[in-house]
């Protein structure tokens, strides 16, 4: 039962949020040099909230808002990721406009180009575009340019968890660092201890999954979160092993440009492991059993 005092508190909180959004809209107007904003969409997610706007001259933008202490790292990383991907001219992604720090109500916001995602689009075109994104740095390296190491100039976030993208010339070590970081966050419960024990057995043998491969850095999208870095192209499909969303036409188009390499199915399980652990850290122990099962499966097959 909600008391009168509780109702007054909720009303005050809602008014505070509304006032914060109104002040945020004033900052957006100032940034876009417009006096008029019309809301064209709204979404609330488990990490951030977003609002679509149309300006008086018809320009459409999307404003993503996050109120946590990690918001600035998240949005600076997203800004750099989107800009770097857009500059390749290989895949259509929203261009970032500006990161707003210390917004009314707390946290940060990022303003970017608005894209209408109301339809699923052309899966084959998406597969082709992602393959071209992954190949872009390879072409640059062939021309004596490009990025020769694994990492990214800034930290990014997977969900709300900051990612260390420090540069290294060793892909296996870069990836193992990502798993180490996730396990360090898990705490000391029995499931966490089991996962850490399994990883201590698996980590020294990870290199076996890459024997005979030449790993060239690709610019990655990291599918759902724009949390880019230069890494092994197969890594971009790890999240899709957890939450399948691409169909046959997507993969046919992608692999017509980048054929599957031997051993890819087990490596995809390895990349899936990162996302399971990340979800365990973000959303709780509901992901513990699938994480432990994946560790055991890889150990058994490696």
TrEMBL record:
<feature type="signal peptide">
    <location>
        <begin position="1"/>
        <end position="20"/>
    </location>
</feature>
<dbReference type="Pfam" id="PF03881">
    <property type="entry name" value="Fructosamin_kin"/>
</dbReference>
<comment type="similarity">
    <text>Belongs to the fructosamine kinase family.</text>
</comment>
<dbReference type="GO" id="GO:0005524">
    <property type="term" value="F:ATP binding"/>
</dbReference>
<dbReference type="GO" id="GO:0005737">
    <property type="term" value="C:cytoplasm"/>
</dbReference>
<keyword id="KW-0547">Nucleotide-binding</keyword>
<keyword id="KW-0067">ATP-binding</keyword>
<dbReference type="InterPro" id="IPR011009">
    <property type="entry name" value="Kinase-like_dom_sf"/>
</dbReference>
<dbReference type="InterPro" id="IPR016477">
    <property type="entry name" value="Fructo-/Ketosamine-3-kinase"/>
</dbReference>
<keyword id="KW-0732">Signal</keyword>
<dbReference type="GO" id="GO:0102193">
    <property type="term" value="F:protein-ribulosamine 3-kinase activity"/>
</dbReference>
<protein>
    <recommendedName>
        <fullName>protein-ribulosamine 3-kinase</fullName>
        <ecNumber>2.7.1.172</ecNumber>
    </recommendedName>
</protein>
<keyword id="KW-0808">Transferase</keyword>
<keyword id="KW-0418">Kinase</keyword>
<dbReference type="GO" id="GO:0016301">
    <property type="term" value="F:kinase activity"/>
</dbReference>
